[in-house]
Amino acid sequence: MALKVELKPGERILIGECVITNSDRRATFLIDGKMPILREKDIMTAEQADTPAKRIYLAILLMYTSKTPAEHHGTYFALVRDIVQAAPSTWPQIELINNHILTGDLYKALKQTKQLIQYEQELMNDASGASLRQGGPASRDAP
After folding, report:
1. Same domain for 48 and 38?
2. 121 lies in which domain range?
3. How far is the CA of 44 from the CAs of 24, 98, 134, in angstroms?
4. Is the domain of 71 the same as that of 120?
5. Does 142 fall in a domain?
6. Model pTM?
7. In sequence order, what DSSP letters do the residues of 1-52 get, joined into one string?
8. Mean pLDDT within 20-29
9. Residue 100: strand, helix, or coil
10. Do 7 and 70 fall into the same domain?
């Protein structure tokens, strides 16, 4: 079954090791075959990977686009160990991601990691709010 992709003007897509940039008009095409495909919005750079969960996303992205995904397992598992030690409540999310990786469904692992990134943001927001309520450094600037 072919994948139908619609690109906005100027939008980029990664297919295998190639980046395709759409022209100035909307385009629709079918991709038949099996190879890594990512829309521009799903691609993360090393500079954008500025939190533990985002670094995990980047490690999985590298697995997904690599001809030898296992080369990135060591990095991934070290990052997972660190995030679970710092925030044990992330374990249920990590377990789902691990299952996708172990079954070879790296695209689903990426999608699940987006939920981990959202959860991480919620944890950071909660921590910031608690700091404000407890008279932490941020609260000194409040009126």
Report:
1. no
2. 44-136
3. 24, 20, 35
4. yes
5. no
6. 0.83
7. -PEEEEE-TT-EEEETTEEEE--SS-EEEEE-S-S-EEEGGG---TTT--SH
8. 92
9. helix
10. no
